Structures are given as C-alpha cells and as structure tokens.
Amino acid sequence: MNKTNNMRGRNIRWQLLVTVSAAALLTATYAVGKAEAADGDSNRPLLWIELGGQLESISGQPEILQPPFFGLASDANRNLMIAAQHAPRYSVGEDAKITFQPEDSDWLFSASIRYGRSNVDKHFHHQTQMPSFHGSVFGKYQNFPSTQEPAIFVDGRTSSREKHAVLDFQAGKDIGLGLFGGHGDSTLSAGVRFAQFTSSSNALIHARPFVSNYVISNPGKYKLPVLELGVYTAVLQAKRDTHAVGPSISWDASVPFAGNSADASLSLDWGVNAALLFGRQRARVHHETTGYYLKAINGAGPSQGGSPKYTHGYHNAPADQNRSRTVMIPNVGGFAGLSFRYADAKISLGYRGDFFFGAMDTGIDTRKSTTRGFYGPYASISVGFP
After folding, report:
1. What is the C-alpha end-to-end distance of the chain, expressed in Å?
2. Do the beta carbons of residue 273 and residue 280 sit within 8 Å?
3. Which residues contact residue 181 at a Cβ distance below 8 angstroms, ignoring those fewer than 6 apart?
4. What whole-number distance in Å separates Cα of residue 89 and Cα of residue 79?
5. Contact 198, 241 (CB under 8 A)
6. What is the pTM of this model?
7. Which of 16, 27, 273, 383 is most buried (CB neighbours < 10 A)?
8. Beta-strand relationship, 185-208 and 211-218
9. What is the Cα–Cα distance from 97 to 114, expressed in whole angstroms?
C-alpha cells in the first residue's frame, strides 16, 4: 500500500512540475508579447504550431530469458524461443510544438512534446513428430506407430509494450548566420527537458525439447522399447521505467537555397541538441522455470502398459527483483532535412535521432544499463498565425 501511495505521489509531483513549467512559459511569452506589440507591427507570424510524426527505430533491447532447458532444444527451436521474446524494434512517434516570437524581437519561446509507443503480441508453436519404433516381448513383434509417440515441441505466448515521452520548454534567441552571406535562421536555445520511458514484457513458454527412444534386450526373452523425454516451463514478467528531468540546450539552423525567401523557398535544415537528465530508474522482474524428466519402459507411455519413472529435472524457485536507482542520463540528438515554406505554412522532411545513454535497466537478475535511442525519418507540417 505504501509503495502504491509513493508511486501516486511521484506521479502527482511529476504532473504538477510539468503543469507549472508550461504555465510559467505561457505567462512569460504572453508578457513579452504584450510588451513587444507596442513597438510596432510585423507581417511575420507571431505563433507557429507544428504537428509531425516519425517512424522510429528503437535501440536498447531488454535481456532475453534463457533457462537451462533452452540448451536441450535444437538450434531451430532454441532460436524460435529467443526470437519470440524480442521487444519491438520500431515504434510510431508523434510530436507537436508551439513557438511564439514577439513582434520586433529575436527571442523565441517554445514548448514541445514527442510521444511514441509500440506493442507486440506473439504466439508460436513448432513440433516434430517422432517416427515409429519397434520391439518384441517373448518373440512377439510389436510396432509403436508415430501417432503414439509424443512430439518434440516448443510453444509459448509473449508480449511486449513500450512507451516514451519527451517534453521540452525552451527560450531561444535568433543569432543569425554569418556564413552563407547572412541568409537563413540560426536559433540558440536553452531550457528544461523531461523524459519518461516505460516498458513491459511477459513470456510463458512450454517445451518438450527432446524425445529419445531406444531398445533394451535380453536375447530370446524380450526386446523392449524405452522412451525418454523432458517437459519444461518458463515464465517471465518484467516492468521497467525511468523518469528524469534536467537542463537542455539546442541549436537549430535553416538556410534557403531555392526560391524567394520572402515568399516561397526551399531550405536546408539541421540542428543538434544536448541535455543532462537526473531521475529514477526502476526494474521489477519475476521469472521461474520448472521441468521434469520421464522414462517409460515396455511401451510408448503408461497408456500403452509401460512402467513410467519420473525424475524432477529442476525447479528454480521464483526469482523476484525489485531494483530502484538514482541515475544521471546524458542525452544527445540531432536532425537534418529539407523544408518547403510558402507564406505562413511549412512542410518539413528529414531524419533525426535522439539517444539517452544508460536510460533503462534492461537486466533480469542483475542491473544492466542500456542506452535507449529513437531514430528514423520524420515529416511535419507547420502553420503560422499573425
């Protein structure tokens, strides 16, 4: 109960901090706008609203559960059980940004959010039917067909969820571009960045990785088939999250290279950003594996009159990890692209990436610090308002 209350308290403080920051930014931009509006009018938009999306590749995959019975399976079945646990490698990102520049001022104030998510559910099953084998009792020939033989199989269900959100509140100044004959825009900004990463994974895997049969004999009396097999189960449940906040800086530039910059133009855009975030990193992991060994003589199993013998292969006691750690996360990113601007609208296309070093604990039994990155092509549309 205390843990739940603590988590709720942290979430409330997080939301309050974001709300206060946003309110402070909007108040500041409004006040500056009122002061600057008295100095004159300009035809350029005072407010820009930008909406966009990105096809993101995700780096920083969680550790894969590989209990001992994976080593008893064939390469194909082992690879299947491992591949089914892979987290999503792509996500659909969405972003929005609002920028305000007072009249007759080279200062800009902005608030932006980037959000991405991905979900994967898998069900896999593969089996190999054993061939028939033969035996005899007191000279009587017996054939045990494959339909009476247990199959080698792997079967399981896995799921993975991932979400991330990055919020920026910045104030910047248009410092111009001394190169390229002074054409273009160049904005140096500073502010605060909030980042939140969450992921979860679940796996339930059943397997009969091996089935073997052979014959034991006593000349003239019997020739008995023997069946041996193992049956195993693995369970994994993991939840991970990181929340962090810290100072950020960025530099964005745009240089027109075609068209009339006052009316319609095609521009080359680029930018870099960096931040140093401080926060909390958590991982809650539960896993368990069980298995047993069966040996049946004189038949393919008890239903065929055999005499089974059971031996526990292993039973690993449930392992529960609940790790929490204060972390410092360096963050760097950048983008490059093209934009077409006409009057009070702009369309942009390009490629960008953002990397948060050591952002997630992706380990199972021990902490494993992993960089979480999002990179890929993006597109956005911006509209200016006077």
Report:
1. 52
2. no
3. none
4. 17
5. yes
6. 0.78
7. 273
8. unpaired
9. 9
